[in-house]
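Example record for the data management plan.
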Amino acid sequence: MKRSIVIVGLVLSATAVPAQSDTLRTTTLEAVSIQSKSEGIKRMAGAVNGSEIGQDELFRAACCNLGESFVANPAVDVNYSDAAAGARQIKLLGLSGTYVQMLTEGLPMRGGAAQPYLLGYVPGAWMRSISVSKGASSVKNGPQSITGQIDVEYLKPDEDQGLLLNLYGDSHRKGEGNLVGNVHLNRYLSTEVVAHWEKDFMHHDENGDGWIDLPSVEQLHVQNRWKYRRGRYIMHAGIGYLDEERHGGQHEADALANPYRIHLHGRGLEGYMKHAYLLDKEHNTNLAFMGTVNTYALDGHFGTKMYSDEQQGLSAQLLLEHDFSEAHQLSTGLGLTGDRIGESYTLLPAYDGSPVSEWTPGVYAQYTYKPSYRFTAMAGLRADMSSLYGTYVTPRIHIKWMAADWVTLRFSTGKGYRSPHALAENHYLLASGRTLTVDAGLPQEEAWNSGVSAAFYIPTGERTVTLNAEYYYTDFLQQVVVDYDSDPAALHLAALQGASYSHTLQVDASYDLTDDLGATVAFRYNDVRCTYGSVLMEKPLQSRYKGLVTLSWKPLMALWHVDLTLQFNGPGRIPAYYDGDGTLVSGSRFAAYPQLNLQLTREFRHVTLYVGGENLTNNRQPMPVVDAANPWSATFDPTLVWGPVRGIMGYMGVRMNFWRL
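Corresponding structural encoding:
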């Protein structure tokens, strides 16, 4: 591949990845390596602390969607937020996924009412790799990153021409099909069609409380993607359509006189384009434009409560990158984001659902100083002007120092901002029988994040132990709080009045025990506290610690794969609530619990077969729904979920690759 093509491709697909952005030359090498199946999880080489999850790692589990891609990742947790809508969210550095900037190939994913279901909208079979960075990341993509960024790379239209088919089924009677096919129309132009379909064919009530444990989901998601590359110019473009329905509520509702039903119907359209041109090969001067538009509509019914949302989003960036020398690089650009959210609802007092629009132009500059391969400093400054919140400035700095060949140290600090859409992002709370109130005039969320990390590479004979230790502190100046505690009979979305912070300490180590057997062990401790009412309390429904052990065995020339993942999830606090007879339950905690996943894979020339099991320890939350027998009562609450709501699940699937048709 010619150097000029690599550099231009970098601007389109990799400049937004924080850990790859401190130098163009370093990023170029990483961008090339992504095009092959990677070696599972590998650390990024840039100044930002992060890792890249390759296809080998993604294939270690069923990986039906983005939410199931972090099973063996010690840094990222994925939890169900409720047992009504089946909303899921990532937790990074002990905090909700709303503080993680979610990107697809450098472009922002949907927000608002789509936020709780976002992880299910990225099919696993479409993904090439996932970049996970921690802390306040690069300012290129905006001020939103507070705890980190997750950037998903899809399979590309100009990869080997052919067809990929993935079929999946599990013991909960869920079926799924994925199709990825591309055609090279000529030497410059390629196109790709990706399609995803899934359906739950059965409702489940494992604990016999009369309530469906998780809603059944039926989803159709298709995209058509294009890539054109000629000389110094490169273009990506695509369009997509999403349609998903969720059905939940009381089990065997047809036999009940007055059943409580839940129905959610989400629909979305999106389009994107990227253009880049190499202006000066000698100084790697690149000019690029990236833009995306999307729409999303949600119609929801929670018993007699109704909620609907219609939203539109726009994002555009103009970027210029230039190397003054090997040691000095500059990236600068202009950005514009626009969001409009219009909501309607019933049975929600004192909430104004009138359409809200926000336009935010911004400008940034990011300077990288790299006098040698041992030291990199990256400083960024961004200014944005919101039509709702005024002008705000985002400073960030990252430093990497390779103190010796066997140890690398990193430091980062920076600020982050995000504009909340309180009810849209938490609409699943309407399923609760508690009174829900949303304060007017909620502030823009604002926080500082600082972190240090050390990576050690310790030789042990012919092999190397990779040891990583890191600490991050997040301090909120402004925050929108979901308050369960001030009133056990109410849910209150309110502005923070007091302190809110997170301390996260993680240690992990990886080692190849033999040529075909690798192991990872990790431990993470979270101390997350927030002020509810006037009391500083431990954040509820969150484990204080997490332990992880993974083993990956690839015998017989790696034709067989055996992957085992064991998680230890620590205890946590349950907020006060009223049980079915009106008794106040307070001061309770859930106990620690393990989870075991196992998968066996066999690779053939064009076909890969896999079979596995999840939650083989059969640990699940005994009663995830409070007062499930009386969903119309004020004590009914399906949102106090802290652990798995389903037990053992077996699955099997097949991946068929037909290249060079």
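Summary line stored alongside the record: Confidence is low (pLDDT under 50) at residues 1-38.
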